[in-house]
Structure formats: C-alpha cells, structure tokens
Amino acid sequence: MSDTFEQANHHDGLLMAAVKASATTTAEVAGDEIACAREDRGLLDAASHLPAKFRDRLRNGVDWRVVGWLGFIHLGALAAPFYFTWKGVLLALVLGWLTGGVGICLGYHRLLTHSSFTTFRPIRWIIAFLGNMAGQGSPLMWVAMHRRHHAYSDHEGDPHSPKHGAWWSHMLWLMPTFDAKYYEALFRRYAPDLLRDPFIRLLDKTFVIWYLAFGLALFVVGYAFWDVRTGCSFVVYGMFVRMVYVLHSTWFVNSASHIWGYRNYPTKDNSRNLWWVGLLTYGEGWHNNHHAFQRMARHGHRWWEIDLTYWSICLMEKLGLAWNVVHTAHGARTRRRKARRRVARRQG
User: Fold this and answer.
1) Which residue range(s) make up the domain with 336?
2) Which contacts (CB < 8 Å, 24+ apart) does range 48-51 have?
3) Exposure of 120 in the CB half-sphere (CA atoms within 13 A)
4) Is the predicted pLDDT of residue 5 greater than 50, yes or no?
5) Residues 76, 240 contacting (CB under 8 angstroms)
C-alpha cells in the first residue's frame, strides 16, 4: 500500500510540475498556493475515500444539481424521433466535433490539463469556451478532477476507477455531493494555474447561463431561416442529442478504456487502448499510450491508432496557432525535467 501512495505522490508531483511549466500562464504558481495545496490534501483524501457499498459512498448526500442536469439532458434527447431533420443531425455532428473534439479532447484535456502544446491566450479562451458547452462542467472542475485521476489512477483517491464498479467509473462518480471547502481545496491543489485565469473563473461562475443563451440562439436560427419545427430540431439535436453523445463517449474513456483493450506500455494502472473508444472520442481511446506518456500531444502511437485530435494540433502548429507541441516521448521527458528543475529553483 505504501508503494501505491508513493506512486500517487510521484504522479501528483509531476502534475504540479506540469502546471508550472505551462507557457500560457502569465506567471508561475506562487509558493503560498503550493503550501496551501499541500494542506488541503488531508481534506481531499478523506472525502475521496470510497466505501465498498454504493449507498455508503453517498454518505454526504446526492448532488441533485448534477442529477437534475444529466437527467434533463437525457430527457431532452428522447424528443429526437419527434423532431428529426437531416439539418439537425448535421448540426449535432458539427457541434459534437467542436465541443467534444476541440473543446474537450484538444482543449480541456491536452491543452489545459497536460499542457501538450501552447497557443495564443484568445484561442485558449475560445477552446475553453467550446469545452464549457460540452455539458461536462467548467474547465476548472474538469481539469482538477482529471489531474487527480492521473495522480491516483486506479488506486485509492482516483475519482472514477472501474475498481469501484463499471457504472461508477462511467457516470455514478458524479453523483455524491461535496461542500464548498472540498471544491476550493480541489481547485487550489490541482488547478492553481487555472484559478489565476479570470476567463476560466468566469466560465465556472456562469456555466448554466451559456446553455440558456445557446439553446435560444439555436431555436432562433432554425426558425428564422426555416420554420418552427426546424428551430425545435436544432435545439433537440444541437443541444440534447449532441451532449448525450459527447458525455457518454467521454465517460467511456474513464470506464471502458480501463476495463477492455490492449496495452502497448506497462503502467501502474489498468489503462487500455480500445479501438472503438478511440474512434468515438477523436483519439482519446488510446488510453494506455496516454497514461504512459501523459504530456504527449499524440495519443495514437501505432499506425492504425487514428488520432484526429493530434492531427488537429499538428494543423494548428502548421498554421502558427500552436507551438511547444510535445510530439514524442523524448519531448515529454525533456519538458518534465525542465519543469521539475523550475519547481526546484522556485522552492529553493
């Protein structure tokens, strides 16, 4: 068990170093913030302990805001057969790529969480906004949870490991409620760089408002250019059907890609490469590759491992919109060593 926590501490340190190395922040995380994050660890570990029985995991109650939000999205998607139009389907596919592929996979994950590349601040904000419209929470919440996942992957403290049940890792892990102190500690420890960004904080505070405005905009566009039914179709497919797809495809990375599939690299978790998750998530399903080399922008390491997200990053690089792209494992190790030296100088 001690080895498990040593490994978790090691990953946690690397993640904090990765935060420091991000070239998109205006300054390194201050030393007092690091000290505060260390003090928060006891609170986070206690809150993240998962009893064997599901009902005991809800000891603090159910987060009815999350349950209501996810229930609302799924109920809305049930209207799809009644408002089917090919224009609505096309809209869902386009918005699914923009919010899921660009917003979540490229933005939340490879840019904000792992700093696999650097871009201009306005583009960073646009990508973060697209991820905010995927229905998976604000970038602050998503990044903090995902960094904690990497710190404790498939060990005690992992927010969504299949070792606590397949459905738990898929979506039930979102159900328990926590108080404000927990989230404050979570953000300070795992996303201090994002806390320094005023636009990221704004997205966290105004999460639901954007959906109300976006839903109204979709209806207005459909009604203005076609008719009422098209307006309703745009809302049903552009909002609800699209978010159900993006939500579950992303959740499959947490669940299915830690249960089934093959492994290219030995890791101290159960991460797997699963082809159908890779296709559904624009390359995120090559999960063992990612856990072996977390900073790499490229998740598909073999010729058949299609990674649309990485191709998009390469396109951005060719257009001059991205730089410091971590293309190889060697690049990931080099950036990690530089980040750790920077942390050492800061703390020394």
Assistant:
1) 2-347
2) 48/148, 48/152, 48/156, 48/157, 48/158, 48/159, 49/156, 50/156, 50/164
3) 8
4) no
5) yes
Residue-wise DSSP of 155-217: STT-TT-GGG-HHHHHTGGG-B---HHHHHHHHHHH-HHHHT-HHHHHHHHTHHHHHHHHHHH
Q: What's the total number of domains in the chain?
A: 1
Residue 305 has pLDDT above 70, yes or no: yes
CA 215 vs CA 8, 173, 197, 206, 244: distances in Å: 41, 27, 27, 15, 15
Encoded amino acid at 286, one letter: W
Token representation of residue 3: 């080895």
| Cβ atoms 216, 239 nearer than 8 A | no
Q: Model confidence over 280-299: pLDDT tens digits? A: 999 999 999 999 999 999 99
Instruction: Look at phi and psi of residue 135 and say left if phi exceeds 0, alpha if psi is from -120 to 50, else beta.
Output: left
Is the whole model's pTM more than 0.85, yes or no? no
Of 49-58, 107-116, 132-141, 304-313, which range is least confident? 49-58
Q: Mark 27-66 as b/e (b = at least 16 C-beta within 10 Å).
A: ebbeeebbeebeebeebbeebbebeeeeeebeeeeeeeee
> What is d(CA 61, CA 59) in angstroms, rounded to the nearest whole number?
6
Give percent of the chain above pLDDT 70.
78
